[in-house]
Amino acid sequence: MLLGTAINVAAIVVGTLIGLALKQRLPQRINSIAIQGLGLVTALIGITMMITSGNILIVLVSMVIGGVLGELLRIEARLDAFGARVEARLSKEGGTFAEAFVTSSLLYCVGPMAIVGALQDGLQGDISVLLTKSGLDGIASVAFASTLGIGVLFSTLPVALYQGGITVGASMLQPYLSSSIVNEMTATGGLLILGIALNILQVTKIRVANLLPAILVAAVLSGVLL
């Protein structure tokens, strides 16, 4: 049942190791342009996801409520603190460890492929979507690891928990996950992806992790209103 997620995790591990191997051989200017290119592609993915919404008000309310919940729960601060603790024990990468962990975890977990792919794996045993996602994540992890370091490797934990949890619980969630619900969750996730892209490009600093509850809020609102 969890084969798709296992392959996804393996792809991130392999990509991270390749990225770390290349890190010492790539000039800083090459690393910089690579991460900028990744940031632009990430923005494109986010914008593409955003247009799936059939009710922009649901996305708007979800972002507001989700942001408030995230701030109250201090999700980003807790993720940063976790990354810093692991960094202090296992890494000599400096301040990039927490950034690598948070940025890559959010990118790999937030999106339609993670949701739809995990559902297909759990409900039908179909891992085709997760295989495609694994390829994309593997490529992204090369770029992230070569620029931000080993923190990318630890993003496999939230990926395994997030996708694995959806897969295992898919049969129980099935009555509530219509196409309309998935569309609004995807659109909300797209906004978060765009926020990640802006952070990658250093345009601004959005506390994207604190907005993560917006995806769950979108699912609830869609289930009630649509």
Give me a quick take on this structure.
The chain has 226 residues and is mostly helical. It has helices spanning 3-23, 28-50, 56-73, 75-90, 96-109, 112-124, 128-148, 156-173, 179-200, 213-225. It has one domain.
Blueprint of the fold:
Blueprint lengths: L2 H21 L4 H23 L5 H18 L1 H16 L5 H14 L2 H13 L3 H21 L7 H18 L5 H22 L12 H13 L1
Describe what you observe in this structure:
- 79% of the residues lie in helices and 0% in strands.
- The radius of gyration is 17 Å and the shape is globular.
- It has one domain.
- The mean pLDDT is 83.
- The chain has 10 helices and no strands.
Give the total of beta strands: 0
**Mean pLDDT over the residues:** 83
Unreliable segments (pLDDT under 50, ≥5 consecutive)?
Answer: none
Rg to the nearest angstrom? 17 Å
SSE sequence, one letter per element = HHHHHHHHHH
The total tally of domains equals 1
Main sheet, how many strands, which sense, barrel? none
Strand percentage: under 5%
Distance between the termini: 30 Å
Structural class, from secondary structure content?
A: mainly alpha
Our count of helices gives 10
The backbone outline, from C-alpha atoms, is globular
Roughly what percent helix?
over 70%
